[in-house]
Amino acid sequence: MSLPINFEALILEADNLKLYKKLIVQLNKDLLSANVDLEFDEETLPTSLKLVLHETVFQLIQNKFSDYLNLLYIVDVSEAKVREIDGTDTVKLSEDITFLILQRVWQKVWYRAKYA
Known about the structure:
Elements: H1 7-16, H2 20-33, H3 46-63, H4 65-75, H5 79-84, H6 90-115
Helix pairs in contact: 2-6, 3-4, 3-6
C-alpha cells in the first residue's frame, strides 16, 4: 500500500474505493477511545472533516496536551513521523498532525477492506 501524500489524494482514494464513510466511522471510533469530544456524521463533507479535525487538534495541542498525546497513541500515529514535523508554528503543526491522523485511520480502513 502506498500512502496518499496529501489530504486531497486521501479523500480521492477513499471515494474511489467507496470507503469514505468507513473512514469516518473508524475516525469516530478512535476519537471516542481517546476521550475526545468530537463525532462526525457519516455525511460530513471532506472539507468540513478536515477543518473541524484540524481545529480540534489545534485546541488539544494548546489546551489539553496529554489528551492530544493520548489521541496520537490511540490512532497509532508514527512517533517518527511526528518528530519529523517542524513544531515552531502550532497552526502548521496541527495541520500536519491532522493529516497524519487521517492517513493512519485510512490505513486501518484500507487494510480492513482489502483483507477482511
